[in-house]
Amino acid sequence: MTLSRGIYHIENAGVPVAIDLYNGSSADGTAIKGWSFGDGTKLNWNQLWLVEPVAGKTDTFTVRSLIAGSYMDLAGGSSDNQTPITGSQRTGTNQEWIIKYSADNKSYKMMNSASGTFADLYNGGSLDGTPIYGWQGDFNNNQPHQCWFFKRMSLSSAQVNAVIKNNPHLSTQYKGYQTDGEYLILPPYLWQEIWNTTGLSKGNKKWRREIFDCDDFALVMKSAIAEWGAEKWRADGFAVFCGLMLGTKPGAAHAYNFTISDDYTKVVFFEPQTNKFMDDIGCNAYLAYF
Predict the structure, then answer these.
(1) Would you say the pTM of this structure is higher than 0.85?
(2) Per the database record, which ranges form the Agglutinin C-terminal domain (predicted)?
(3) Residue 83, Cβ neighbours under 10 Å: how many?
(4) Which one, of 179, 166, 170, lies nearest residue 248 by Cα?
(5) Which domains does the chain possess?
(6) What distance in Å separates the CA atoms of residue 245 and residue 68, rounded to the nearest whole number?
């Protein structure tokens, strides 16, 4: 199966380490290493990668660090074993990777387009800081130090729309508008951390009839997540997901935010007045944009 464009956490098939840009540095030549990722409940920003197809080339992709904006690069495009893989600015085919299933049809292998060598976790090591090199190999084996699981961390606009339309809390007049093509889905703890920086429900951002009411709360939250993403990431070509819905309930209307669940199967509502998530916010949405 061809890999889809998206944001991924790339995990080794043999040991619990992920492809990590050391310290998230944007400097050319920054080492890319294997690094642990714990239980996965907290994101490591140095381990998120935007994988994008190269136009006109089958199964060929660039792999770009979200936090640094640099690309996964085989130093000099060399075919020598133990050639360093680093983060660098976009220059050529040494930053293009042919990504296809390995022989097990579960994990993927990453072959550099310039050299024909593979991204290899040195000796399959599990220690933080284990080097990742270019090394000879082929697609027809399951050597775990060259096999990688691509855990997707984003959804396309079409996928988000499909999840929303399966949500039971929509009115028959519902319309949705998306403004971007690929969305990074943040875990709930990050939403709540970002909300804590907004000043909502404090000072002059408390609820006030008409002057600062539900739609203003939802707009501030959506803006806060967008600003957080703009400050956090140097890569572009994706958005950080934060939806806004307008809904109705008997005798009232309401505005609120929403996101997608961790398993990407359902809508989760967010009340920006209280910093709380819920599966049912008591409204049926007639309009959403994200």
Answers:
(1) yes
(2) 183-277
(3) 20
(4) 170
(5) 6-152 (2.80.10.50), 154-289 (3.30.460.70)
(6) 32
Sign of the torsion angle spanned by Cα atoms 34, 31, 237, 108: negative
Q: Hey, what are 281's tokens?
A: 């916010």
The pair of three-digit structure tokens given for residue 146, joined into one six-digit string = 């060259």
Q: Which residue has the tokens 């840009």?
A: 21
Average pLDDT over residues 4-9: 98
- Residue 269 CA to residue 230 CA, distance in Å, equals 23
| pLDDT value at residue 38 | 77
| Torsion angle (degrees, nearest 10) of CA 18, 70, 99, 49 | 50
How much is the pLDDT for 40?
Answer: 67
> Is residue 120 within 8 Å of residue 111, measured between CB atoms?
no
The CA distance from 62 to 290, in Å, is 26
Cα-based distances in Å from 264 to 104, 153, 185, 222: 25, 9, 9, 19
Residue that has been written with the tokens 């990431």 in this structure: 233
CB 133 within 8 A of CB 81: yes
Q: Of 282, 241, 284, whose CA–CA distance to 264 is shortest?
A: 241
Let me know: does 88 contact 71? Beta carbons within 8 Å. yes
CB 243 within 8 A of CB 278: no
- Residue 199 per-residue DSSP state: T
SS3 24: helix
